[in-house]
Amino acid sequence: MTTARFFTTGSRIDAVEVTGHAGYAEEGEDIVCAAVSANLDLTSCLLADVLGLDIKTEVDDEQARIRIELPKKLDEADEMQAQNALDALMLYFVNLKARYQDFIEVMEV
């Protein structure tokens, strides 16, 4: 099972960490893993390349773990855009869980 954890301080999402393999299908055929990976990549590109934020990204292929962390302090406009991006990612994962509940878990911690 894939677990997506959104780390929050108050209403701010500080980071997202995704661990594990969905197990929906064989490697290379798993649409749940593909959906999760593609949306994490898109969010990372949006935050780093489009918005120009100095995010911290950690990838551990051996442990099947990806973490994206926002800087502690952002100006108001960047903060709003970053939160919109992470809110959209969380909503996407929640919707994915509704369709594939045995393969993905979403938590706010």
TrEMBL record:
This is Ribosomal processing cysteine protease Prp. The keyword Heme does not apply. It comes from the Bacteria. Coiled coil: none annotated. GO terms for biological process: proteolysis; ribosome biogenesis. SUPFAM superfamilies: TM1457-like. Keywords: Hydrolase, Protease, Ribosome biogenesis, Thiol protease. GO terms for molecular function: cysteine-type peptidase activity. InterPro entries: Peptidase_Prp, Peptidase_Prp_sf. Belongs to the Prp family. It comes from Butyricicoccus porcorum. It holds the Pfam family Peptidase_Prp. CDD domains: Prp-like (cd16332).
